[in-house]
Amino acid sequence: MAKKIAVLVRERQAEALRMSGGLTLLDDEVHVYILDRKLEKNTVIDKHLDMVRNMLELPIWTNFKDNDNLFDYISDEDLSNKLLDYEIVIPY
């Protein structure tokens, strides 16, 4: 049975994005949240972001408005309500 998983991206951004993609191997529903800071720009993060966004088409939200409008914005209040719907929440 597929699980609903939220990945919270903070400090270990490249690892979190890589793991988000890996979690899809079991056909679980994976959603990504980039929280409290701007997503770094480097070749490793860009590669993992391309995989998560373009190849796997995982939904990505952020609560940080300065993320260059790359992701859908979600307020902290909406985020806290939405996290209640997940069976697994993985913080990075």
Q: Can you describe what's shown?
A:
By secondary structure, the protein is of the alpha/beta class. It has one domain: DsrEFH-like (Hypothetical Protein Ychn, Chain: A). Helices cover 35% and strands 23% of the residues. The chain has 3 helices and 5 strands, in the order βαβαββαβ. It has helices spanning 13-23, 43-55, 76-83, and strands at 4-9, 29-34, 60-62, 72-73, 88-91. It has a 5-stranded parallel β-sheet with strand order 4-3-2-1-5, covered by helices on one side. β1 (4-9), α1 (13-23) and β2 form a beta-alpha-beta unit. α1 (13-23) runs parallel beside α2. The chain is globular, with a radius of gyration of 12 Å. The mean pLDDT is 95.
Cα gyration radius (Å): 12 Å
> Helix/strand/pairing class, anyone?
alpha/beta
Architecture in CATH?
A: 3-Layer(aba) Sandwich
How much strand? 15-25%
Flag low-confidence runs: none
Q: On the 0-100 scale, what is the average pLDDT?
A: 95
CATH class: Alpha Beta
**Helical run tally:** 3
What is the oligomer described by this structure?
single chain
The CATH homologous superfamily name equals DsrEFH-like
Share of residues in helices? 25-40%
* CATH fold-level topology: Hypothetical Protein Ychn, Chain: A
The structural domain count equals 1
What is the general shape?
globular
Q: What separation lies between the terminal Cα atoms? A: 25 Å
Sheet having the most strands:
5 strands, parallel
